[in-house]
Amino acid sequence: MAAHDGSFDGVERRGLMFVLSSPSGAGKTTLSRLLIERMSGLRMSVSATTRPMRPGEVDGRDYHFVDRARFEDMAKRNELLEWATVFDNRYGTPRAPVEAALSAGQDVLFDIDWQGTQQLREKARQDVVSVFILPPSAADLEKRLHTRAQDSDEVIRGRMSRASHEMSHWAEYDYIVINRNVDDAFAEVQSILKAERLKRERRTGLTTFVRELQRQLES
Ligand SMILES: Nc1nc2c(ncn2[C@@H]2O[C@H](COP(=O)(O)OP(=O)(O)O)[C@@H](O)[C@H]2O)c(=O)[nH]1
Ligand SMILES: Nc1ncnc2c1ncn2[C@@H]1O[C@H](COP(=O)(O)OP(=O)(O)O)[C@@H](O)[C@H]1O
């Protein structure tokens, strides 16, 4: 997955897979949108899902909304990089756009759960950077699920009762961000991405760059 990120400092590097996970309502979608808006060289991976569309969601932007038969077909044809069952629905990452983005020098942002993160890690440990977002308190989490006002009370109860189980996977992640305040949490997530882009082992063009510097110094 060699990549050149033209938006950066001109040194070639491999693209990375930047994963945000959290219990439902902790703020992944909010932080993902801000990252896509404000960071260049980053593309969102749009998942396929069998869950019903929420008010305000757009097919192809938020998710590819598909029926169960179509989803099973995609999985069987190996068109999904990973997939999992969450809240009785299937969710999966279409493989082709991720591979195209990485080979075009883009980083890819994923809003996926711990099961999907484990699968990506097994496939490409070196290229996966994972961040787990925690809410500041259970009361805040519940309030956010209600203020989002897109799910029924029953769905919200289901999401709250699964939050503790989802959170039990926090220690599998590279970074933990507590989303008290959106601006601070965004600044933290952005710093992680910026620092990870600078990691020596991703920067495949450094040897050439340093050799050229040395040549200039020695001539
Ligand atoms: N493994 C996997 N999980 C996904 C994928 N897309 C979304 N999810 C996760 O599915 C869960 C439910 O997502 P969603 O129904 O949009 O609810 P939300 O968490 O309230 O935004 C979240 O934990 C998402 O991160 C995917 O492609 N693969
Ligand atoms: N730091 C925050 N403070 C208050 N509300 C927040 C914060 N972060 C997100 N929200 C709100 O909480 C709700 C859930 O956030 P969302 O990003 O949809 O979570 P997720 O994608 O993890 O389910 C949304 O209405 C969002 O505007």
Automatic annotation (TrEMBL):
InterPro entries: GK/Ca_channel_bsu, Guanylate_kin-like_dom, Guanylate_kinase, Guanylate_kinase_CS, P-loop_NTPase. Keywords: ATP-binding, Cytoplasm, Kinase, Nucleotide-binding, Transferase. It holds the Pfam family Guanylate_kin. SMART domains: GuKc. One of its GO terms (molecular function) is GMP kinase activity. It catalyses: GMP + ATP = GDP + ADP. It is found in: Cytoplasm. Its EC number is 2.7.4.8. ATP binds at S22, P23, S24, G25, A26, G27, K28, T29. Residues 15-194 form the Guanylate kinase-like domain. Essential for recycling GMP and indirectly, cGMP. PANTHER family: GUANYLATE KINASE, GUANYLATE KINASE-RELATED. Belongs to the guanylate kinase family. HAMAP family: Guanylate_kinase. NCBIfam families: guanyl_kin. This is Guanylate kinase. It comes from Bradyrhizobium aeschynomenes. The lineage of its organism: Bacteria, Pseudomonadati, Pseudomonadota, Alphaproteobacteria, Hyphomicrobiales. The gene is gmk.
